[in-house]
Design brief:
The chain is α/β, with parallel strands linked by helices and about 270 residues long. The protein has 2 domains: about 90 residues, 60s Ribosomal Protein L30, Chain: A (2-Layer Sandwich); about 160 residues, SPOUT methyltransferase, trefoil knot domain (Alpha/beta knot, 3-Layer(aba) Sandwich). Helices cover about 40% and strands about 15% of the residues. The chain is built from 10 helices and 10 strands. A 6-stranded parallel sheet has the order 7-6-5-9-8-10, with helices on both faces. A 4-stranded mixed sheet has the order 1-4-2-3. α7 links the parallel β6 and β7. The longest helix is centred in the C-terminal third of the chain and has 24 residues. The N and C termini lie far apart (about 55 Å).
Length: about 270
């Protein structure tokens, strides 16, 4: 372990504190990861580059076990931070004593190991980092091939995004292509797009989601932009609603349709085995 970082004026502490701003994360190509679960998943995905610990803040024995594991491996630098300095860099009201720096994890579409019958989630213009993280968590839960993020208004490395995903962003393949890159890539592979809109006429459950499919959603405020509905790859669909709300949370909407796709695909598998 490196020397104790005790002062809030320490250059390394100041650097960590600066990463609370997106401009600094973008400029330096790194970001803060906080929380035991998130750090464990980042480490397993080889996305952890440094660890900072404050043992007096540890909330469970597992925190110490993880710290000792990384010290024994000696694969990344490990620093101890005083409680006073740690509270400066922490993003949480009740810090649990572990914080790390992350390595970029985004992939190009060509780098993703696509299955023979891919299912993926695509999102456009998501503003809130918590929603973006929750979308990643839902996509990971269903076991999609990838999450495709277009025109994001919040960065994937926002601490709220990482926390809402519970670290799923580290194991889930994520690509950030332009619309033209995505359109050409999916056209070459004959993937269908299911583009969700409350104005569509077809309920999503009436569609065949057993073939290579991309489920596409827009932001809660604006929905998808018009090019998505004009493309011949696209089939507009809606999630029927009978209450007074005119829309669902974007992560809830994604989960509903993703699990219908999973249900249809599992039905094929069950019939084939029978």
């Amino acid at each position: 372990m490196e020397d104790l970082l005790s002062s809030r004026k320490n250059p390394r502490i100041r650097f960590l504190d600066s990463l609370k701003k997106r401009s600094e994360r973008d400029a330096h190509g790194t970001y803060i990861i906080e929380g035991l679960r998130e750090l464990q998943r980042a480490h397993r995905a080889q996305c952890l580059r440094e660890l900072y610990s404050c043992p007096s803040h540890f909330s469970s024995p597992e925190h110490g076990i993880f710290l000792h594991k990384l010290e024994a491996e000696a694969s990344i630098p490990v620093y101890e931070v005083s409680p006073y300095a740690f509270e400066k860099i922490s993003l949480r009201e009740g810090p649990d004593g572990l914080l790390g720096l992350g390595i970029p994890f985004e992939k190009q579409l060509e780098q993703i190991a696509w299955s023979e019958n891919p299912l993926l989630l695509g999102v456009e213009g998501i503003e809130k980092p918590g929603n973006l993280g929750a979308l990643a968590r839902s996509a990971d839960a269903v076991g999609v091939d990838a999450l495709v993020v277009l025109s994001p208004r919040s960065d994937l490395c926002n601490p709220q995004c990482i926390r809402a995903s519970q670290g799923a962003i580290f194991s889930l393949p994520i690509a950030l292509p332009s619309y033209s890159e995505w359109e050409a890539f999916s056209r070459d592979r004959a993937w269908q797009w299911i583009v969700l809109s409350p104005r569509a006429e077809i309920p999503f459950w009436s569609l065949d989601l057993r073939r290579p499919t991309a489920i596409i959603l827009g932001s809660e405020k604006e929905g998808l932009s018009s090019p998505w509905f004009q493309d011949p790859l696209a089939t507009p669909a809606r999630i029927p609603q009978w209450g007074i709300s005119d829309s669902l949370n974007v992560s809830a909407a994604a989960a509903i349709v993703l699990y219908e796709a999973l249900r249809q695909r599992r039905a094929i598998s069950s019939n084939a085995e029978g």
